[in-house]
């Protein structure tokens, strides 16, 4: 049987990106490929793409540099997967994807590859970038804010878009006033509202919280991830403290666990 050059590339270490592209071509081959890979489409792969992006962010947040290379590779695989499916449909391929983003980077950096002055602050460059994106959209103000984004992140992006055309509270105190108003409305009406109405009011409250984060120049997604990590760390410390006595949280009560929580919290604040 004649040798298959693609197989040689797939199994040869050191092949880099061409090797990865060849592997995906083989996996998606309708005759000799992997049945699972062949069955996938854009919609079925999209959740994995989102998951891999979060795993990259998680490794960075944990300073897990020994894991980051692998996580970035998993994310790259997702791009290669979508590129292969796009090529099969005659829509695009990996080369056209790379060329498109390369041209975008050149177009959006006229201070590097054009006549604009490089004497700009980082903030001014961000504003110029957003202005370029707005010109490219040529549609409604909120067009192009991806539906698949995490809700808090999408809320901030929607609010930023609206703010650029003047629809925004001028001062943070106004956001706090709205926050108190929404919280009071939710608590006062919780016994008279339907479940759907409570959900709607809760959504309004979270939307204002995202706006407060934006006014304070805080990434609400990052803030909530940090809060989740802190809660996990402190609750596990409670479990560890109870375990020294052969007990679990089910063997304790709220008052005891609250005392243990306060002890963990105080210990974290002691300078090392």
From TrEMBL:
GO MF annotations in UniProt: ATP diphosphatase activity
Reaction(s) catalysed by this chain's protein: ATP + H2O = AMP + diphosphate + H(+)
Entry EC number(s): 3.6.1.8
Domain NTP pyrophosphohydrolase MazG-like span(s) in chain numbering: 40-113, 175-234
Family matches, as InterPro entries: MazG-like_dom, NTP-PPase_MazG-like_C, NTP-PPase_MazG-like_N, NTP_PyrPHydrolase_MazG
CDD domains the record matches: NTP-PPase_MazG_Cterm, NTP-PPase_MazG_Nterm
SUPFAM superfamilies documented for this protein: all-alpha NTP pyrophosphatases (SSF101386)
Any one GO BP annotation for this protein: UTP catabolic process
UniProt family annotation: Belongs to the nucleoside triphosphate pyrophosphohydrolase family.
PANTHER family: NUCLEOSIDE TRIPHOSPHATE PYROPHOSPHOHYDROLASE
Entry protein name: Nucleoside triphosphate pyrophosphohydrolase
